[in-house]
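Lab notes, practical 5.
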Amino acid sequence: MTRPIGDQGDKPTEMRPSSDGGQTTGQTSENPEKDKTTPLKSSLGKAESPKTPTPKKEPDGSKPIQKRASIGPDSILEEPIKRRSFFSWLTIAWVAFAAATTTFFGMILRFMFPNVLFEGEQTFKAGYPDEYNVGEVVIRWKEKYGVWIIRTPEYFFALSTVCTHLGCTPNWLPNEDKFKCPCHGSGFRKSGINFEGPAPRPLERYKITLADDGQIFVDKTKKFAYEKGQWSNPESSLVI
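Output from the prediction step:
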């Protein structure tokens, strides 16, 4: 008994290609949704993979926004440090470091090599006795040797040009017949005795003798102080 065409009890058949090039009949899939997700085969027999969406590219010339490190709601740096400003500060730092280092090593060298007082000649010949007048203060040896030579009616003596107050150099004032210190006003008589100002004691005398050739010989390595009673020493004056 044949069934009428279009009977609802029968399922529609599907034509499928066979391995030999023919067609075979088969039933349709019972799950239509599954058939939709099944990749379709191309004419070459390969399955086509579903296309993935292409990410959108940023417009040409645009750069991604970089986040700056920050503490709290705002950034640490309100404005970025300029390169020129950075090198300027770096230069200043190096100069300060070099100056501090130089000063430090200078202090070390200063400690290793203390001051040395280089004095001039400590002995010298001051000419012949007849070159001096009685009562005259000869100042020609002041600049080079720091000595005044005075002749009295009885003897010669060599007087130091160093003030006994703070070491300044007094000047001989012939009109006032005295030595006057320009620093603090100390005054000394022609003999070297202090009589005004803050100077605590008289000027010192140096050893003075007569050399073998008859010239006056002054030796600054040996001093004579009045307050110590040393002016009475025969070497503190030259008797002619």
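Observations recorded by the TA: The domain at 123-239 is CATH 2.102.10.10 (Rieske Iron-sulfur Protein). The first strand starts at residue 13 and ends at 17.
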